[in-house]
Amino acid sequence: MTAVETLASIARNPAQVATEWKANGGKVVGYRCLYVPEEVIWAAGMLPYPLYGTPEPVGLADAYFQACTCEFVRNVFDHALSGRLAFLDGLVLSNTCDVVRRLYDIWSRHVEATPVYLINNPQKLLDEANKDYFLEELHRFRVHMEQLSGREITDEKLSDAIALYNETRTLLRELYALREQDPPPLTGVEALEICTAVTLLPKERANALLREVLAEVKARDVQEADGPRILVTGSLLDHAALIRIVEEEGGVVVIDDLCNTSRYFWHQVEDAPDPMTALYRFLNGRALCACMHPTEARIDHILALADTYEVEAAIDFNLKYCHPFLYEAPLLKARLEAQDIPTTVLEVGHDLSGHGQLRTRIQAFIEMVEA
Amino acid sequence: MTTEELPGIPLPDLKVVEEMQLGIISRFGEVQQAKADGKPVVWASVVMPKEIFQALDVNVIYGDMLGAYTSIYGLSAHYCEVAEQQGLSRDVCAVHRCAVGLACADERDPIFDMAFAVPDLVVGSNFPCMSMSRSFLQVADKYNIPYYFLDTPINPWGKNLPDHAVRYFADQLQGLIDFLVAHGHTYDRAKLSEEVAFTKALNVIMEEVNTYKQAVPMPIKAYDNVIASTAPIALPKEYRTLDLFERYRDELKERVERGYGVVENERLRLMWIGMPPLCDFGLLNYPERHGAVVVKSMLEYLTGFDMDPETLDPSRPLESLARAQLVSPANPTIEQTLDYFTKAAVDYQVDGVINVVKRTCGVLPGMQRLTKEAIFEATGAPSLVFDLDGVDSREYDPEATKANLDSFVETLLARKGN
User: Fold this and answer.
1) Nearest-CA residue of chain B relative to A117?
2) pTM above 0.90, yes or no
């Protein structure tokens, strides 16, 4: 099996790595979203586990969340209720969307076996006025992780974790730089699965695999591709089905702006007087989620990606009832189209239902771009 | 103008509430006049600390309130469609779709043409949900005007707020003041203290009002209750006096003292959680035909005039406003909300809870189970949870809604042995 295939198989079975870690006596801490600094969890000797859903219909969770709430969150909560997340020793959520805030409420009352902690991060970023507040929240989180793990998180351990994670981010940036090529040597499906797997793995192992991936991809004999170069954006895609449709219909996905792909690794933790300040600056310095402000920063970032990757069209996959991204969609579409980048906004379910219709719309969009 | 001249608007039962309703509507015309006089117009939300706008004499359009009024006037379908043509999904909040549609429409119905003026500034916030901060971006984008985001931390701490949270939010409020000053307004700290003192005094009156509203039988109709609860924010300055609310209290007191109830032979007392049907507002009074009355509504806490007056210290206005907003029952997490509802269920002797789900809300559809459980545990009162988007009239089914209410009330009556 190649390194690319190894990572793809990990991405398709998200709980596997964490379950093995747990079986070997380690602790696992679940988390969502981008504003939970994994480095703190890792420095406490625990494995961070990003929550992913599966494309199955929601069952038990519908008794807690109405059917008109985010399907991703309901799906994840379904997993918690059915015991599929029983390997978690704790859960950490950050202050992002309204439904994740509610997940905190419901989880804390109905999944007693897994204590949940909330990082009350500001939603106004790129603004040092939040420094005292945000730093205090991060310090409290650090203390909580020490209590959960029973281990002290020294500055040295934290700095080591930051260095390790920075290496992961550097390797992923290097991989993504290859996608600037025309044609790119990596498909969109492969990129999504590699990134997803990396989020799940202990980073020493992830980094070793990423080095192998880089060697494999660089050695590829790339075939000519005729289709338009496409940017995919949205919140989170925890399976590759949608990107696969785009590529099967002739689109060439060259860059993705998703919670579990480029948003995860695009920025580095820079040097600072102490590691907590470094993490603060890192988190405050990337307003890449539609829950955060200022919105222009996020849109500018996407436009810069479109420029770097010489994008010819964009697809905005919005999960149904994902309000932050749905509100932002018209603004983003207008800005992309002002740059002559045709954009389609597709509201998609979290499960695989409706993919037939979706394929037709994607096909029509790609035909229109090619015309 | 009288209430009879306003099609679709129910006639309040209490004289003083009718006065409030007319006052609220009269405010519509002020916005355009102020704009014509050269004052900037600020598009903001009704749930922000209104004392700041009042102290700085800001000419505000409360976008979400205006959105709600499009529904009350039977125009929500039209303005929702305008917003959807701008690219907003039909799955995002109907109130905010109405507001965006109204702001972005090329033409408006006469009553809203009067209530609307092109804004010069936008203030958005993530309290109590993120719909406002996100939807208001559309307005800022449409008119290419400055936007201030008031970042409100959510509250997982309860009443014991940590200093870093209070400081941060007080700084955010100061930032709002700075933003308004930078765009032509004048700040006088003494005036802000006066506004906080006014709110404190008003809350003392509202505490008394609440004791009368808890009386059995219920002395005020559900619709009147909603209007009176929003009046402190929506009324223009000349109407918004302590005297008006003292008269409101006194009318209630008089009714309680003579044992007057809005329904004869009161049989059930209900609480309404979730957005009431704005496009059919009179429905709040519908259960009265069964001898049931809605004694408490969620809208009461949204306005910020149902709080402990001791939270406010006029000598420290920003810190007071920060504390008040952070501990508000409308601010996630759910702890404060559950405390509010369970206490209300006890104080108001609630027999049952109507707990409606607005399909396009990001907050309430994750709350029903928790409120239902907490209220039942505290009081034994059951809840009816059902889908009701009474904002976007395209999604509203009056007959199904009435059937749901009828069945629930009949079940409650049977349970009580009536």
Assistant:
1) B156
2) yes
